[in-house]
Write a structure and sequence with these properties.
This protein is of the alpha+beta class and about 170 residues long. It is built from three helices and seven strands. A four-stranded antiparallel beta sheet has the order 4-3-6-7, with no helix packed on it. Strand 1 and strand 2 form a beta hairpin. Helix 1 packs antiparallel against helix 3. The longest helix is centred in the C-terminal third of the chain and has 23 residues, at about 145-165. This is Carboxypeptidase regulatory-like domain-containing protein.
Length: about 170
């Protein structure tokens, strides 16, 4: 009899105890600053900044060759000036971790005709921007409902397997 209980208990001990996962995701945020300069904030979902991560920015309509390249600073920030309107694709990579996002750039003020602003450069220029974060955050994770369904599925699978093994052989 103890042998029949050993298998289900061993399976439950092996698969039923949650362990912390050592993986993490990447969160990218963007917000416009002054004169068509956009700040990109790259952090891990643990809150740690992606220091010195590689940044490649692709112009609208050309996702093959980046127009702007650079690295993030120690706080995971990167600034770029968009010379034209459109959807710019931003890619941030560091040691196998990375994320892509689209930054929608409105028509520059000089093209609208209201205020004439100087022509932006294509270099990454650190600027003293206040460390504020955008309200829109792209967090990747599971909702409590999804977590509950997954846990229930695993438990149901373990119980079913234990019952199958415990039924014995028919003769």
């Amino acid at each position: 009899m103890p042998t029949r209980l050993l298998t289900p208990v061993a399976l439950l001990a092996l698969f039923g105890i949650p362990v912390p996962v050592l993986a993490h995701g990447v969160i990218l945020e963007s917000q416009p600053t002054e004169a068509q300069v956009y700040e990109i904030l790259a952090i891990y979902d643990t809150g740690e900044p992606m220091q010195n991560a590689q940044v490649a920015i692709y112009p609208p309509g050309d996702a093959t060759e980046p127009q702007i390249r650079g690295v993030t600073d120690n706080q995971g920030r990167f600034w770029f000036a968009a010379p034209q309107a459109g959807d710019w694709e931003v890619q941030v990579l560091q040691a196998g971790h990375g994320e892509r996002m689209i930054v929608s750039v409105a028509q520059p003020q000089s093209e609208i005709g209201t205020e004439v602003s100087p022509e932006p450069t294509l270099e990454a220029t650190p600027s003293p921007v206040a460390e504020t974060r955008s309200e829109t955050t792209t967090r990747r994770g599971y909702t409590p409902l999804q977590t509950g369904v997954m846990m229930g599925s695993v438990i149901w699978g373990c119980v079913g397997t234990a019952l199958y093994c415990a039924r014995g052989k028919k003769q």
